[in-house]
Structure formats: structure tokens, C-alpha cells
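user: can you give me the structure for this one chain? C-alpha cells are fine.
assistant: on it. calling the predictor now.
[tool input]
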Amino acid sequence: MKAVVLLSGGLDSATVLAIARKEGRDCHALSFRYGQRHEVELDSAKRVASSLGVSNHLVFDIPLDKWGGSALTDTIEVPKDRDEASFSEGIPITYVPARNTVFLALALAWSEVLEANEIWIGVNAMDYSGYPDCRPEFLQAFQEVARLGTKAGVEGKSGLTIRAPLQTMTKAEIISLGAGLGVDYGLTRSCYDPPSADIHCGHCDSCLLRMKGFSEAGIVDPTKYA
């Protein structure tokens, strides 16, 4: 069975790719260069794709930085050293407007061309930073979009399924699962504001969640922090 796997180069998407591979999927990895300040994640995506094995890996350019509106795509300071309780209080400035909607729409288009049966995405509704496009109801709605807006869906053929296996897992659970599947987390990058290609800042929300996950999983964190 063919599957399009959204691969950012981060911890979660690497784990999702490993799960899809374990389940015997013919994986086609899709990454995006969208004007993100942490573009170093794309090099990680290439390494992860090579390490875990994919049929092909496409890096798609979408210049979302043309209009900015996020600390990840604009000259807005990335929040640092926030306490965990504040992560889900409102929508943080690191939210990129409609990013997952755009990513899934393009993944859906490629899936139609490939005649793929599934799209896999590493969104998480537990240890997340308040992003509206990581919620179960969002994915359920997009599943309906896929049914209504595709040739296969209209013709009543076997529909395309959105797979989000990490959605109800904590970061520690994700890391434990991925480690058991042989994911080399030293290849991944999570930092929103990396000082260099190989170093995480250690202070942004993503870094803090990453550190917490490894600590709670009882697994050595291979990440280099500033």
C-alpha cells in the first residue's frame, strides 16, 4: 500500500515514518521549504528518509514567509523559556497560519497522482503548543475534504485515509516507541530557532518538549543544546 508521509525532519515525523515502514507501507516522503527560520530541518529530513528508507523524497517550495505572521516565518522573536503550563494557553506566535491545511492539501494532491491510499502526519494533541491544526477535529474535517474533493472519493472508490498515530501520545511515549523501531533521533532537529545546523537553542517550546520527552522516557537525549 502506498502512503505519503509528511516529513519535517523533527522527532515526531521521523517516528511516524518508522511506524509506516513497520506496517509495510510503500512510503513517499514529502517535506516543505516554506521560508521557515529553522530550514536546517530539511537536511535532517533527508537524513531520516535515507536512514529509514523511502521510495522517494520530495521537497516542495511554498514561500509562506511572503506574508509572515509567525515567529517561524517572520522577523518576530521566538518565545523562550516558557513554563509548560503556558504552552496550551492560547495560540502561540510560532503558529504558522493554516500550515497543516496547506501541507495536507498538497499531500492530498500528490496522493492522487501516486494513487496512494494514506497520508501520514505527526501531529500531536497531547504535548503540543496550542496549534489549532493539530487537533483531532481538524483531521476529521480534512478527512471529509479528502472524501468530497478527490476523484476516488467522488467515484466511490476506496477512499484516502489520514493517519495520525501519535495524536494521543505523550512525547515520552513517542520517543520510546520510535527508539524501539530503530529511529536515530540524533538525525532529527526540533528547534524553532537553532543557532547552527547541529545545535538546538534549548530554550524554545519545541526544545523544552524534546528535553522533557527524553527525560521522562529514560532515554539518553542525543541532542546538542546551546
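assistant: here you go. Residues 81 and 203 are 5 Å apart (CA to CA). Helices lie at 11-22, 41-52, 99-114, 136-148, 151-154, 171-180, 205-217.
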